[in-house]
Predict the 3D structure of the following.
Amino acid sequence: MDEQNIILKWCSIFQAKYQQKWKFYETWVKENPESVARVEGAFRTLAYASYMFTGTELNQQVLPELAYALSNLYVFFNDNVLRKSFNLCRQMALTEERLIKWLTVIEHIEVFLELAGSRLAGPTGKWIIIAAVHILRAIFRLVLLFRYSSGIQPVPPLSTLKRDPKFLKEIHSQDSPSGDTNYTGEQQQDTFKGQRSGRVIRTLDAAPDINHRTWRLPEGEPVPRTPEHLERTQLHGLPLLGELLHISRPVIHLSCLLRWGQRSWKPWLASLAVDLANLFLLSKLDRLNIREEQEIHRRSGLLLLYLLRSPCFDNYSKEKVLAFLGMTGRIWGLQTISKSLTEYLPKWQQIYFYNWLQ
């Protein structure tokens, strides 16, 4: 009994000290967001520098990818502290919140998991990790889409908060009339906030005399909240099918790779067809909020990566891309960048989660 009491006593002491340290850290992050940003920047710089001090082989990139993943997770961790401290968490079910956070974590660590699996178990371990990550992510996204009507799901699911004390305090001070964080109607007499875009504009009644008129908003205008607070676009019919195709595309591509192999054009064509189809179906939406528009633009831009994906790269675009890099290497000041890209491009192609971004 004495030993058990001693263990319980030490556990309670440890818990009390942990809670004290944690409270101190929360307070420090809340009161010093700019200092937090500097620490995060230093951590990120060290992560980038780690790539320079390791070998160029893929099995030597595990530790740099781990450092980079940890730097992203540290930023994500501080974001959660700031959201909690400034009451910026959007009202949602606990399960939905956990799914969104887990999806964000997966986005940060997927490359490290792929390289670690390849290092520990070879190609078999690599593809097991890739398949597990894609299947798990697809399940999470499907639950969010159909159970919680998440609409167009951005990448990453949670955006990084600005480390600006004034910005954080201003968005914290905003209170909607009904307590609903998704409230986007008229918040002040002199200004109006758009329901979809989140843009704040001045009402006609608040316009000053024409001789003193400026483009500035009246003092005290509401500041837009975090992107997660924008009203989601509800998907039905063809747009819903388009988002479903986007979520399923990685699994479809992996299935085609398993069936026809990496050298076949069929996985490449199937993936391209799915991406084009989902963009076409989502284009039928008339109104999107800012974050959803940015996500559509991001997906459209990723279509250019098909030129760098095998077998298109190996058979058609490789010579043209390398010739372009060789030409830019003749320009003063671009030699180092061109040489680095030329050397890194074949290795980048071997990393699935870099090459086949979702």
The chain is about 65% helix and 0% strand.
